[in-house]
Amino acid sequence: MPVTDVQQDLENRTLTIIADFAAPVERVWQVYADPRQLEKIWGPPECPATVVDHDLRPGGRVTYFMTGPDGDKFAGYWQVTAVDEPNSFAFDDGFADLDFNPNPDLPVSKNVFTFTGRAGGTRSTFVSTYESAEALQKVLDMGVIEGASSAINQIDGLLAG
């Protein structure tokens, strides 16, 4: 399994996930830069994603929805704030209605995804910061660690394919 560490820090309002992949940084970057590849790993296996819009540049927006096993759709968006291809990108990630309007009742996280070359591949560090400890606790209670870990663990299969 690629996920090697998960740390939640309510005091600093962060969730950090570290994963290692046996692929170069540029290849791991492509998973996020290509919407068709992103669909294969954004969301747990039982809730596959469909990327509707994909503009991975500062000021760009990525919109998507996940489809649950019973057919229910859950939408979200990224508002891209920074890109340093292929090393990192930052974005605000929020929940949305099916027209991709932000849902003000659910937390928005500020995310920085960093890809660092190392012997044998890439270390990926995913850091999400929330506005409050309560917002972080809300997504923890919703299963964000399990969902994000199972989503990230799908990357190995995509890289091998």
Enumerate the strands of the largest sheet in spatial order, edge to edge or round the barrel.
1-2-8-7-6-5-4-3
Q: Indicate how many domains the architecture comprises.
A: 1
Portion in helices? 10-25%
CATH superfamily: START domain
Spans of 5+ residues with little confidence (pLDDT < 50)?
A: none
Mean pLDDT: 95
What's the SSE pattern?
EEHHEEEEEEHHH
Reported for the largest beta sheet, the result is: 8 strands, antiparallel
Distance between the termini: 16 Å
Secondary-structure-derived class? alpha+beta
CATH fold label = Alpha-D-Glucose-1,6-Bisphosphate, Chain A, domain 4
Q: DSSP helix count?
A: 5
For the record, the CATH architecture stands as 2-Layer Sandwich
Protein name: SRPBCC domain-containing protein
Domain Activator of Hsp90 ATPase homologue 1/2-like C-terminal: 22-159
Family: Belongs to the AHA1 family.
Protein traits:
8 strands, Alpha-D-Glucose-1,6-Bisphosphate, Chain A, domain 4, 161 residues, alpha+beta, 8-stranded antiparallel beta sheet
Ordered list of secondary-structure elements with their pairings:
Elements: E1 3-9, E2 14-21, H1 25-33, H2 35-41, E3 49-54, E4 61-67, E5 73-84, E6 88-96, E7 109-118, E8 121-130, H3 133-141, H4 144-152, H5 155-160
Antiparallel strand pairs: 1-2, 2-8, 3-4, 4-5, 5-6, 6-7, 7-8
Helix pairs in contact: 1-2
